[in-house]
Amino acid sequence: MKVCITCQADVSGKRAVPIREDRIIKTIRAVKRALGVAQNNELFVCDTCIPKHMERRRSFEKTMLFASIFAGFVILLLFYSIVTSGRLDAWAIASAFVVAGFVLLLPIFRYAPAIEQVGAPQTSMPAWSASAPVPKKPEEKGPEQELSTKGAPKAKRRR
Ligand SMILES: [Zn+2]
Description:
By secondary structure, this protein is mostly helical. It has helices at 23-35, 50-85, 90-105, 143-148; strands at 2-4, 16-18, 42-46. The chain is 45% helix and 7% strand.
């Protein structure tokens, strides 16, 4: 089934942009297969949901960027302390990597997958460009939760 990842609606026959299958999506898929809850849906973002999705994607990218910078900083700090103190403290090394790893994992909870290029020929007249600005209310839903929600009855939301 072709499903919109934002509103969970079935998008077959409607205009929608496919999402890019990245490592996180593949990981989620693998985990779901392992748990036996995979639905093997093809994931899309429907026209109506694109502004909202782009907003989420941008905020995810920003979070990811800050997380990488911060994690890099923690590791640099670790190397700096090793160099200046001249000794290897196993606990300091372990905790630095735990902190860095944790920081890098946090953005996953805001995860929004990339979509194939908007404005491609099949979507040359973007209906969303004229629509009202997206309200700034990030939905605090993890990707796992979001992808697993069954095609809920709130699907018939149209403009
Ligand atoms: Zn949608």
